[in-house]
Amino acid sequence: MTLLSVTNLVAGHGLLTAVREVSFSLDTGEVLGLIGANGAGKTTLFRTLAGVHPAISGTILLDDVEVTDSSAFRRVARGIAMVPEGRRLFAEMSVRENLLVAGENGRRGPWSLDGVLAALPALAPLLNVPAGGLSGGQRQAVAIGRALMSNPKVLLLDEVSLGLSPVAIEGLYEQLEGLKRQADTAMIVVEQDLDRAMGFSDRVLCMLEGRIVLEGDPQALGKQAITDAYFGLAHLEVTHA
Amino acid sequence: MLDALIQGILLGGYYAILAAGLSLMFGVVRFINLAHGDLAILGAYLVLFAVEVLGLSPWVAVAATLPIMALIGWLLQATWFARTVKGGFLLPLLTTFGLGAVLQNGMFGLFGSDTKSLGNHIGNLSWASWQLPFGISVGQLPVITFVVAVTVLGTLQLVLSFTRLGRAIRATASDPEAAELSGIDARAVHRAAAAIAVALAGLAGAFLAMRALINPYAGPAQLIFAFEAVVIGGIGSLWGTLIGGIVLGVAQSLGATVSAQGFQLAGHLVFLAVLGVRLYLAHSRNLGGWRSLLPALKPGRKPAARLQHATSEGRS
What is the spatial distance between Cα B237 and Cα B245, in angstroms, rounded to a whole number? Predict the structure, then answer.
């Protein structure tokens, strides 16, 4: 069942068009890997989906309801939550307060503080610690927990492994795998590590210069095709054909 | 001396109420409201109107005026302030400077230029005092003002710490975009903060009118005192405004023991001293301290090159 439907979405920064007529859909419970080099338009697409960046044209439907012009907090209430690049925690507030803020203002649903602590047990001893004093991995776990507290139907995870140690990334993806099994929440994951993205996702979208140049099952596509699309080689072949 | 110290501490209560709204607006909305003092005077005139024209008792009038002031703050944020913030750093200053001028002349047109006071409506409270040992007398109104200040700040602290609205306000103050991504309507939070800030300004204005004479052009002087209290106590800090108010009040009271003009001068000097120390510490953190620039002033060195080097370090 289609949960999120994006059609001909265009977004940009001033004269620069960063997202060019992007169209895709996301089914309930599906995990979509969004890959592409720096500047491909992934973060702008995410921010436009979350409602913190305006769309120039195109439509975004969530459960067949158009949310293209809705503000970010209304989209959270409808079921779109984003874990932003850089985590963006409320540094002077405790971990508990960071989680409660999203729970109190988000969508009603099954996720509660106890549920999040069960899914992300590393947070339990940190509840009363100010978020500004946490390590990178701990901050990322809080950011994911905060997004879950708003009971999303679609969870957008932007560069979740950026800046983390290999051990922390391993632990983080173990927790995300657990979430995949527990919840029927659909996820879109921006990940620079191709192997990680291919292993975690049911389907991948590869962006290049604001456009989707490759889409499909990562195992069926194969790493070479995805790598070519990532670096623009496949795109150039198509363009020149 | 002890008497002046106690009077100064109690005067700090008034400054704390006045400065808390200014501090809240800056801390949450990142907005400097140059009309804050004029809004305080507007609150005082509304209380006077309710007492003299409608015949309400002064305390009932204060209670009735606070929601009106909150509504004014809400409307100002919704219609003007939110738009000006998008226009950069200068536009809010110009807008609220203009708003202050409009308020002053509007009050002049409506209420006239005569000085007014609530003092003659509150019985002997304006001059009644308690006698303490060592010949110290403590005014009842300053004590009430101080108790109200502590109660207001304490209540705000409880709201900010333990309520949903308080957490939303703190989250929005920390990062408005991240707050929106957590489901918080940041614009509504800004409107709530402005409502609280302007209501506090009105409350401060009412206490000012009880202990002193006011006129439509008294706002800018109150704004300066509020700024001084906020800067001394730390911008955006709730209890810091009480400490800043007390320091300012004590400086003014001690200055007044030296000469009549010393009242304001001592307050300004303490403010400048604290501002200087804060700037020194800020530069110390960012540029390795002002001391690092001092060698540039010695003979045989090139000051311009040294300054440029320090500046580029600060940018990197």
Answer: 12
Tell me the CATH class for B2-258.
Answer: mainly alpha
Structural tokens at position B58: 């002064």
Neighbours of A122 (CB within 10 A): 15
Which of A196, A112, A188, A178 has the alpha carbon at shortest distance from A150?
A: A112
Both tokens of A95, joined, read 């971990």
Closest approach of A85 to chain B, Cα-based (Å): 11
CB contact under 8 A, B186 and A73: yes
Start and end residues for every CATH 1.10.3470 domain found in chain B: 2-258
Asked if B185 is an interface residue toward chain A (Cβ–Cβ < 8 A), one would say: yes
Confidence (pLDDT) at A86: 84
Q: Which of A71, A76, A92 sits opposite B182 (nearest CB)?
A: A76
pTM: 0.85
CB contact under 8 A, A105 and B175: no
CB-CB under 8 Å, B180 with A52: yes
Task: Look up tokens 């308080």; give the residue.
Answer: B166
Cβ distance B180 to A91 less than 8 Å, yes or no, reads no
Could you report the predicted ipTM of this complex, rounded to two decimals?
Answer: 0.90
For B135-186, the pLDDT digits (tens) are 888 889 999 999 999 999 999 999 999 999 999 999 999 999 999 999 999 9
Indicate the CATH number of A2-240 among 3.10.150.10, 3.40.50.1820, 3.40.50.300, 1.10.3720.10: 3.40.50.300
